[in-house]
Write a structure and sequence with these properties.
Helices cover about 65% and strands about 0% of the residues. The chain is mainly alpha-helical. α3 packs parallel to α5 (about 60-75) and α6 (about 80-85) runs parallel beside α7 (about 100-115).
Amino acid sequence: MHRWTLLLMLLLTGCATLNQQECQTKTPAALGLADGKQGYGLWRLDRHVESCARFGIAFERAPYLQARAAGLLQYCTPDNGERVGQRGENYEGVCPPALEPGFLQRYRPAIFQYRQDYPDRWGWFGWPRRF
């Protein structure tokens, strides 16, 4: 019985992106900017909302989204597309339409080269394996 409780706790906390202190001290705008710079999809906003709701703390979406858009301007550059590909990171399709072609032009050859150099790090369907 104890193992099941531990497993359930791990599953429930595994999706949390923020703890109570972070929900109280970090602003949605700061989180949005950071998430945009990292190229996170909107699933990340949902996780922040869920994390803070567990502690009864409302998470404001509008400031997060506005700041995330500013962060994406920094993420969605051709140079960063190349860096992301060279590190073997997945692109989540987050770049605005005007910036995506330039990002992908440098990302695609870099991720292709990464996959050629490290074939053992890629599982089925081109998804990265977790270590």
